[in-house]
Amino acid sequence: MKIKNICCIGAGYVGGPTMAVIALKCPDIKVTVVDKDSSKIDRWNGKYQDLPVYEPGLADIIKKTRGRNLFFSTEIDKSIDDAEMIFMAVNTPTKTEGKGAGMAADLRYVENCAKNIAKIATADKIVVEKSTLPVRTAEKIKEILSNNNSDVNFEIISNPEFLAEGTAIKDLFKSDRVLIGGEKTQSGEKAVEALAKIYNRWIPKEKIITMNVWSAELSKLASNAMLAQRISSINSLSAICEKTGADIDELSNAIGLDHRIGPKFLKASVGFGGSCFKKDILNLVYLCKYYGLNEVAEYWHKVIKINEYQKDRFANIIIDELGGNVENKKIAILGWAFKKNTNDSRESAAIEITDKLIENGAHINIYDPKVKESRIKEDLNNIWELKSKSEKDLSNRFSRLEIFNNYKDAIKETHALAIITEWDEFKEINFKLVNQITNKNPKIFDGRLILKESNYTIGK
Ligand code: UDX
Ligand code: UDX
Q: How far is the CA of 444 from the centre of ligand 2 (A)?
């Protein structure tokens, strides 16, 4: 089967960059990315420096492909109708109410997408699960599709995304592996092959792994859980280092040199963030509980608990080091993104650390090179709305917040500064520079192990 038209539903951090790379590598395929959020589509069609997703190298690809064979549109129905292959890259947040609240994935958007595809389709379609989904979701999608439209054949294949934000383009160009899960029927195998052919334009055959749908779905959750587990393991050891005088950097290096362990994902931090790790582990935990595997559920849940502990521990250390009281003290938070080279702040440690410091009466100055002021305020508003007793209480919290467009202004007149994101521009910070800029000799807290000089570094 030759694919000429691809439609991707969801123009977010996954859909946008993935489709840009497919369009770049397959100039003969028309790729249309649709989203229900028209302002997001406008930004994808707007200035290259104001695309909704910041990723190194992305704007250059958009320049080459937009209007050639890559299109961003709000015409969802038409794009579905035109395409032989449809990617679903809509978000799957953790459920906030009902059965499984706080743990299970909210499949509302995925189900709506499936219903819409069924309504529109007049010819056979291959539907690709790109969003990370709980195991056996494909079955549910298939059911929705065939119950709502029995005239055409739908093949559901799972093709989980392994790109990491900040290196998305690099990861897409040179993937460790591409997983494609499909049914072992003749039409299922054909669908898998059609997608494999697309990836094979730039990914060698041996890296394209085909498997059954459930294995593909579970592989994604398991990979993220194992990566997050490494971070929680090293972060738990950082707490022991602080008590014993061992050095976490030296420990990471020593452990990572064992080739059975390897050096990656052993960097101690203020805790992992991002849209995937917490959500995917919660998903896994929920799945275990559903199958009555309570010990397994507890085991994975601990990875998240250590992460919460690490964020809280960092905030407590700032408070302790400032004499146990931060009331009316000014503290700069440097970095709001959950890691460098992205404008994404979902689940960033900065959010909870800021909240805790403000809860304790501090004034906070914030600076991030890529996250917009409106986003920072939205992140805080999301938790403060629930916590605040009144409008006055809410505006009181916001009155303790100031956002800056460079770090030098943000650290002026502060009692302390805390580095949360490892942005390269923070590497130049040291006591001498800080003392030149400020006149209060603020304490420096390094949450990302990027400074040789600081009053406090995790694990040291
Ligand atoms: C999302 C999921 O969070 C992740 O689990 C999955 O692996 C990939 O998709 P991401 O791309 O980072 O990740 O999410 P986001 O940036 O929020 O993008 C999703 C987009 O889908 C949003 O732009 C949203 O407006 C759009 N959407 C959502 C639709 O177009 N239609 C819907 O019904 C729901
Ligand atoms: C992750 C997975 O890596 C990717 O394969 C999957 O598709 C999506 O989820 P992402 O969340 O974008 O990607 O970024 P990642 O590089 O994994 O970092 C996640 C968090 O872990 C960040 O907050 C990062 O700072 C933190 N981290 C990472 C550490 O604290 N220490 C490390 O050693 C590595």
A: 25
